[in-house]
C-alpha cells in the first residue's frame, strides 16, 4: 500500500502567520500499525521526498491520554527510518498498490491541496475503481484533482473530513483561510459528518473511503483491512 504524507511543516493562516504544523501523529501511526499488523507492505511518499514533520500539537494533552500518546510516539520512533527517507511522490505509480492512503493534519491544507502531482495521482486512482482512503484534513488533497475537462473528479461522491465545528475548536482555527467542509461542499461533494464532533465517523462511497477526524483513524484502518482482506 502507498501512504502519501504531507511534506509541509506549517499552515499559512489568513493573517499571513505560519502556524507550525505537519502530519497528525495518530492519523499516521494508528493506520500504519494496523496495516503492518495485517501483513501489508507499506511505501511512504511525500512531495519531493522530503521527510514529513510531526505536528507537535498531536502529541500534547489535548490529543488523548498520556498512555495513548506515548504509544503513538513509540510507534513513530519504530518507523523513523521510513519516515526519514520517504519516496518522492513523483516517482510512484498508484497502479502498483492495492491501497492508496492519505493521513491528515493541517499539512495537506498547505501543500497537497495545491500539489499537481498528488492531484493527478488522486484523479487516476479514483477513476481506477481501486481503494483510496483520505483521513481528517487529507480530503483537502482532493481539491488538486482535475479531470481533463477541468471538472472535479470527486464531485457527487459521498465523503467526510474535518468539519467546520471541529476546526473551530482549535484556538487558531478561526484564522483559517478556508474550511475543509465548506470547500468540499462548494466543489460538489456530498459532504456528511457525524452527529457528535470528535467521535469516529467513516464514510464509504464506491472505492473512496474517508474518515472525519483523528478519532476515526482506527475505525477507518480496520474497515479497510476487513474490506481488502
TrEMBL record:
GO terms for cellular component: cytoplasm. InterPro entries: Class_I_gatase-like, DJ-1/PfpI, Prot/Nucl_acid_deglycase. GO terms for molecular function: glyoxalase III activity. It comes from the Bacteria. Residues 27-226 form the DJ-1/PfpI domain. PANTHER family: DJ-1_PFPI DOMAIN-CONTAINING PROTEIN (PTHR48094:SF22), PROTEIN/NUCLEIC ACID DEGLYCASE DJ-1-RELATED (PTHR48094). This is DJ-1/PfpI domain-containing protein.
Amino acid at each position: 500500500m502507498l501512504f502519501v504524507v504531507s511534506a509541509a511543516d506549517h499552515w499559512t493562516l489568513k493573517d499571513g502567520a505560519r502556524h507550525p504544523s505537519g502530519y497528525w501523529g495518530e492519523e499516521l501511526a494508528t493506520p500504519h500499525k494496523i496495516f503492518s499488523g495485517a501483513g501489508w507492505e507499506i511505501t511512504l511518499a511525500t512531495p519531493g521526498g522530503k521527510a514529513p514533520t510531526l505536528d507537535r500539537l498531536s502529541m500534547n494533552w489535548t490529543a488523548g491520554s498520556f498512555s495513548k500518546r506515548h504509544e503513538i510516539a513509540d510507534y513513530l520512533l519504530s518507523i523513523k527510518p521510513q519516515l526519514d527517507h520517504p519516496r518522492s511522490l513523483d516517482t510512484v505509480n498508484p497502479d502498483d498498490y492495492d491501497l492508496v492512503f492519505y493521513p491528515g493534519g493541517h499539512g495537506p491544507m498547505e501543500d497537497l491541496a495545491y500539489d499537481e502531482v498528488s492531484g493527478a495521482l488522486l484523479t487516476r486512482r479514483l477513476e481506477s475503481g481501486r481503494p483510496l482512503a483520505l483521513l481528517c484534513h487529507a480530503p483537502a488533497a482532493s481539491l488538486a484533482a482535475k479531470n481533463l475537462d477541468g471538472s472535479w473528479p470527486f464531485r457527487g461522491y459521498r465523503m467526510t473530513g474535518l468539519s467546520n465545528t471541529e476546526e473551530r475548536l482549535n484556538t487558531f482555527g478561526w484564522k483559517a483561510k478556508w474550511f475543509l467542509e465548506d470547500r468540499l461542499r462548494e466543489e460538489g461533494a456530498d459532504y456528511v459528518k457525524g452527529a457528535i464532533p470528535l467521535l469516529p465517523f467513516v464514510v464509504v462511497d464506491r472505492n473512496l473511503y474517508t474518515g472525519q477526524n483523528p478519532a476515526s483513524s482506527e475505525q477507518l484502518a480496520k474497515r479497510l483491512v476487513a474490506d481488502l482482506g
